[in-house]
Design a protein that fits this description.
Layout: E1 7-16, E2 23-33, E3 38-43, H1 49-57, E4 64-69, E5 82-84, H2 96-101, H3 111-124, H4 140-153, E6 158-162, H5 170-187, E7 190-194, H6 198-204, E8 207-212, E9 218-223, H7 238-251
Parallel strand pairs: 3-7, 3-8, 5-6, 6-7
Antiparallel strand pairs: 1-2, 1-4, 8-9
Helix pairs in contact: 6-7
Bound molecules: adenosine-5'-triphosphate.
The site of adenosine-5'-triphosphate has 11 residues, from strand 2 and helix 1.
């Protein structure tokens, strides 16, 4: 793993300007993500998780501080990351293949070459045979896998995933965790992952950033000392349960 970060946030401050007074979301926070890492961002509702993603993608500009992606200039971030929103946002009138193809339609290269790549991706994502299906014919987990594949096909090394499994029932979510943990080693991507789910954050991540919105807009970093490869059964082990408790205490500022 190279030691120079793919994402580097230094001294970031941001406030939404209100009619009467500004609402401070971040005050001088710093976050680094190394190539190939899986890093989660957790925090209470309103702590600024989505705002952080908007700042990283370049939809918002920091009031203070810098954000570098892949060492590029802080002011030039638009189009540099793959972003997957919370809702799958698949177009209902397009088939699975055509939904995945969507971002590739604007890029150069042969259509056949892209189709081969998509077919290969669908196989890896357990979606072979569903090429011509429409979103309403898929389960929630399958829709999220199509949306994830589409995000990956954009070809960016850094992926921002905004609660991709948040709307799934617990059994489907468990299956998605198994699937993602299995796939993870081969993906060779860097992921920044928003979640409310502490178990999910520990299971999937190398490190976790806690956003402490109500506590002056600061962040705390927490390392997940669990070896890989991991599997979703880990959550039943005493070491995992102890970690979860430690993280909860940290969130509630009792540690
Ligand atoms: N455009 C805006 N103008 C003013 N305030 C905003 C705007 N967008 C978000 N906020 C406020 O900023 C704070 C952080 O919002 P944000 O959506 O980033 O939180 P979040 O952690 O993603 O929440 P959730 O988990 O509920 O999605 C909230 O208090 C929200 O009301």
């Amino acid at each position: 793993m190279s030691s120079s970060p793919i994402l580097s946030i230094k001294g970031l401050s941001y406030a939404f300007s209100g009619e009467e007074n500004a609402k401070s979301i971040f005050q001088h926070i710093s976050i680094d993500v190394l190539p190939g890492e899986f890093v989660s961002v957790i925090g209470a509702s309103g702590s600024g998780k989505s705002t952080l993603f908007k700042l990283i993608t370049g939809l918002l500009e920091p009031d203070e501080g810098q954000i570098w992606i892949d060492g590029g200039q802080s002011g030039k971030r638009l189009g540099k990351v793959g972003y997957m929103p919370q809702k799958d946002l698949l177009l209902p009138w397009r088939t699975v293949v055509d939904n995945v193809m969507l971002p590739l339609e604007l890029t150069k290269g042969s259509k056949q070459g892209k189709m081969d790549e998509i077919r290969e991706g669908l196989k890896r994502f357990g979606l072979a045979g569903y090429e011509k299906a429409y979103p309403h014919e898929l389960s929630g987990g399958m829709k999220q896998r199509v949306a994830f594949l589409r995000t990956i096909m954009i070809g960016k090394d850094l992926l921002l995933l905004d609660e991709p499994f948040g709307a799934l029932d617990s059994m489907t979510k468990h299956n998605m965790h198994s699937w993602l943990l299995e796939l993870w080693g081969d993906l060779q991507k860097t992921v920044l992952f928003i979640t409310h789910d502490l178990e999910e954050a520990i299971l999937l991540s190398d490190r976790i950033y806690l956003l402490l919105g109500e506590d002056g807009g600061s962040v705390k970093e927490w390392k997940v000392e669990l070896p890989r490869p991991r599997n979703s059964e880990l959550i039943y082990q005493s070491e995992f349960i102890a970690m979860r408790k430690e993280l909860e205490l940290l969130i509630h500022n009792e540690k």
